[in-house]
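COMPLEX REQUEST
Ligand: guanosine-5'-monophosphate
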Amino acid sequence: MSAVFIISAPSGSGKTRLVQELLSSDPKLLFSISYTTRAPRGQERQGTSYQFISREEFIARKDRDEFLEWAEVFGNFYGTHESVWLEAQREGRDLLLDIDVQGAQQLKVKIPDAVTIFVLAPSREILEQRLRARSEDSEQVIARRLSAAAEEIRNYHRYDYVVVNDQVTEAVSTLQSILRAERVRRQRMEDRIRPILATFGESL
Ligand code: 5GP
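STATUS: Structure written out below.
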């Protein structure tokens, strides 16, 4: 049974790096590539970080109910396509999603045993430094992201886990521990337990 891991964080928390580290260390994880109407930044390429589409296409797909969840973030639309969840199940992999607080709430309704993780920068000052260091955004965008961060952080209590991204290696290791433990929850082990019990002549 595929597990679903949702990671949310205010932008600048270092979440993208953490997600990349997790994906490269764990081939069982399938990253959910979202659809978005925002323009590509920096090195972003079509189909690797996002599927970049027009507002018209997004609205048409939304109206056809193709998204498991969707939200408007900083004036752009973002959505998780239903096909990623089917793909994870077909391939027997676990799905990792990097989505915002609104999307995490919607997905939790559709997939109640999804595991939710909130990543935090150690302070507002460090968040601001990180946003400036990536120098991909204008001053106006940075100011908007900082005030959105204050709002998003208030939602931390809706999540199962909170990881403070102080040192990247430490934060990655904490995330790996969460994934490892969640994967052996009893309800995710039924498929493994059944053949073991069968060897004892028992059935579930
Ligand atoms: P960015 O533009 O910085 O890549 O992402 C902005 C915000 O949109 C981040 O908080 C990110 O987690 C969120 N986001 C990315 N994809 C999705 C999605 O498919 N659904 C939702 N609800 N949020 C998303």
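REMARKS: Residues 196 and 202 are 9 Å apart (CA to CA). DSSP finds eight helices and nine strands in the chain.
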